[in-house]
């Protein structure tokens, strides 16, 4: 499976634009725990009142509780060597096998009852579910990322049992013991690292698959968030993914083609980027410069003396994640979502440099200033002009209802070879037209309504059966970001004049390209 035609979509079952992403999102990397990626934010409560915003609505945002570590999170050493990590996966395979034997034995005894549900696989018993959760939360790293990825698939894509297991994985992330965390700090910042800060909390306020985040204060009083990477995860990306998928494929029925070779390569590349905190710091600084004069978005400053390959310090950000903005007025929700789409279009067609992780907690809304703070730049990437020149024309063709041009520009973009069957080509064009409807609609587009999901779902069998080539590698990250932006608009029930926004972007793009 792949993202061969996902131009505009979302990733939740309740989104009218979501069904295609639900079917093919397994080809892109996940976005971490719900509300708890490796963001550099803790103070999720704004103060003050913005004119025109009703007091009770503002209070609902200001009073949002700070999310911290999951109730399931606990202090646990991270296995740092490949051998120790392999041992955990080997233990999981053995444990799952023993769990199956136990379940079969229980069912074979007169009056025997097993812990699995009637008609369910003995591999997915409660005991085996706990084994999977505990193993992934112990090793963390790429394996935990894959588990979190699987959690967002709907019940028609993976079994409800498997989805429940990975939902528990997504809500759980253990953190390093104090001694292991201090060891990383000393290795990265030197034994005198304490001289760089006035204080640093030893227990993190957030923990995810690659690292954990601690709150601290600089000697000048600046509050900071310090991200500390788990030892061994950067060196074990490929082996972790292979080991986990090997265990799961032996024990449970994963959908055919869930992790195609090219999608795995894209996943591994992005995880490698995210493990390089120096690269992330450079990306954050780049975005801070690009958005320096933007009235709506801000990027926290990087604390250079706290930046290494495995440690990243930034200003502590304030605000609430986007999913906590649903109680705001329709006008405010529309403004937030309009700005998100404007940012996506600027990133792709103006900067040609995009932060591709759409996790809710990477966008923090501050009601007092009516601004959004952007976080987590590890998955940022560039896009070449050859790609954007063709991509913008595909979107414009869909916006204009020009089916022939959608087909031609899809071939130019290398989505298609030109040798596909007519059935496949027709299905591809139809899907692009459906997913491009927000940009074809005159007036405000209602993201909370429509039957896009049902219409696209009917095209999927043809698209999976007859495709001849994988999509351009740029689209794995791009479509994840666009999916997240459209999901945010759907979740906040936004009404946005998308066509006008895109038309302005299109004309500005070609004016700048021809200048």
UniProtKB/TrEMBL annotation:
<dbReference type="GO" id="GO:0006744">
    <property type="term" value="P:ubiquinone biosynthetic process"/>
</dbReference>
<keyword id="KW-0067">ATP-binding</keyword>
<protein>
    <submittedName>
        <fullName>Coenzyme Q8B</fullName>
    </submittedName>
</protein>
<comment type="pathway">
    <text>Cofactor biosynthesis; ubiquinone biosynthesis.</text>
</comment>
<comment type="similarity">
    <text>Belongs to the protein kinase superfamily. ADCK protein kinase family.</text>
</comment>
<keyword id="KW-0547">Nucleotide-binding</keyword>
<dbReference type="GO" id="GO:0016740">
    <property type="term" value="F:transferase activity"/>
</dbReference>
<dbReference type="InterPro" id="IPR034646">
    <property type="entry name" value="ADCK3_dom"/>
</dbReference>
<dbReference type="InterPro" id="IPR004147">
    <property type="entry name" value="ABC1_dom"/>
</dbReference>
<dbReference type="Pfam" id="PF03109">
    <property type="entry name" value="ABC1"/>
</dbReference>
<dbReference type="GO" id="GO:0005524">
    <property type="term" value="F:ATP binding"/>
</dbReference>
<feature type="domain" description="ABC1 atypical kinase-like">
    <location>
        <begin position="169"/>
        <end position="408"/>
    </location>
</feature>
<feature type="region of interest" description="Disordered">
    <location>
        <begin position="49"/>
        <end position="77"/>
    </location>
</feature>
<dbReference type="InterPro" id="IPR011009">
    <property type="entry name" value="Kinase-like_dom_sf"/>
</dbReference>
<dbReference type="InterPro" id="IPR051409">
    <property type="entry name" value="Atypical_kinase_ADCK"/>
</dbReference>
<keyword id="KW-0808">Transferase</keyword>
């Amino acid at each position: 499976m792949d993202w061969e035609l996902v131009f505009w979509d979302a990733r939740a079952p309740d989104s009218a634009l979501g069904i295609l992403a639900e079917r093919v999102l397994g080809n892109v990397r996940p976005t971490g725990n719900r509300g708890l990626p490796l963001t550099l934010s803790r103070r999720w409560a704004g103060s003050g009142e913005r004119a025109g915003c009703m007091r009770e609505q503002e209070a609902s945002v200001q009073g949002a509780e700070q999310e911290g570590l999951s109730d399931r999170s606990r202090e646990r050493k991270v296995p740092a060597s490949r051998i120790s990590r392999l041992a955990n996966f080997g233990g999981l395979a053995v444990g799952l096998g023993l769990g199956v034997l136990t379940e079969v034995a229980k069912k074979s005894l007169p009056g025997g009852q097993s812990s699995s549900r009637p008609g369910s696989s003995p591999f997915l018993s409660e005991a085996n579910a706990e084994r999977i959760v505990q193993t992934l939360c112990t090793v963390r790293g790429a394996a935990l990322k894959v588990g979190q990825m699987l959690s967002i698939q709907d019940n028609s894509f993976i079994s409800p049992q498997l989805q429940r297991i990975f939902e528990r994985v997504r809500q759980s992330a253990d953190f390093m013991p104090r001694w292991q965390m201090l060891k990383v700090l000393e290795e990265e910042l030197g034994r005198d690292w304490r001289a760089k800060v006035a204080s640093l909390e030893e227990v993190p306020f957030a923990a995810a698959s690659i690292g954990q985040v601690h709150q601290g204060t600089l000697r000048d009083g600046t509050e900071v968030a310090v991200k500390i990477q788990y030892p061994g995860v950067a060196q074990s990306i490929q082996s972790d993914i292979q080991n986990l998928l090997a265990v799961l494929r032996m024990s449970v029925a994963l959908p055919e083609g869930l992790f195609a070779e090219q999608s795995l390569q894209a996943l591994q590349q992005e995880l490698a980027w995210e493990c390089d905190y120096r690269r992330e710091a450079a990306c954050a600084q780049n975005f801070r410069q690009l958005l320096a004069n933007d009235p709506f978005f801000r990027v926290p400053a990087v604390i250079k003396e706290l930046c290494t390959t495995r440690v990243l310090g930034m200003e502590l950000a304030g605000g609430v994640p986007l999913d906590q903005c649903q109680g705001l007025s329709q006008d405010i929700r529309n403004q937030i979502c309009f700005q998100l789409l404007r940012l996506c279009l600027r990133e792709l067609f103006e900067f040609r440099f995009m932060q591709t992780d759409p996790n809710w907690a990477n966008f923090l809304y501050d009601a007092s200033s009516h601004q959004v703070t952007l976080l987590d730049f590890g998955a940022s990437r560039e896009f070449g002009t050859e790609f954007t020149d063709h991509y913008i024309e595909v979107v414009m063709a869909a916006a204009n209802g020009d089916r022939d041009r959608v087909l031609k520009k899809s071939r130019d973009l290398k989505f298609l070879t030109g040798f596909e069957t007519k059935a496949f080509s027709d299905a591809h064009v139809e899907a692009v037209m459906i997913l491009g409807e927000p940009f074809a609609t005159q007036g405000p587009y209602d993201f909370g309504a429509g039957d896009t999901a049902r219409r696209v779902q009917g095209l999927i069998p043809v698209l999976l059966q007859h495709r001849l080539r994988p999509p351009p590698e740029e689209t794995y990250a791009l479509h994840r970001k666009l999916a997240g932006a459209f999901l945010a608009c759907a979740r906040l029930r936004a009404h946005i004049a998308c066509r006008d926004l895109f038309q302005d972007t299109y004309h500005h793009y070609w004016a700048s390209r021809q200048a």
